[in-house]
Fold:
Amino acid sequence: MSMTQEYITIIIKFYQGYIDFNILIVMFSAVMYIHVDIFRQLFIKIVFCIMLIVMFYLLLSCL
Structure:
């Protein structure tokens, strides 16, 4: 197999994986839509925690 053929097969595999990933996202968002309130609360908590960690890190770097 030449380099070009390997490159093409990698692109095809990546493209197929990308399509599978999109299907997974669609399925996941359909499931998430059922539990949208729970996920929203969870997401807000996660974002809040990340913001706290970042603010703490910035505070430490200032000292």
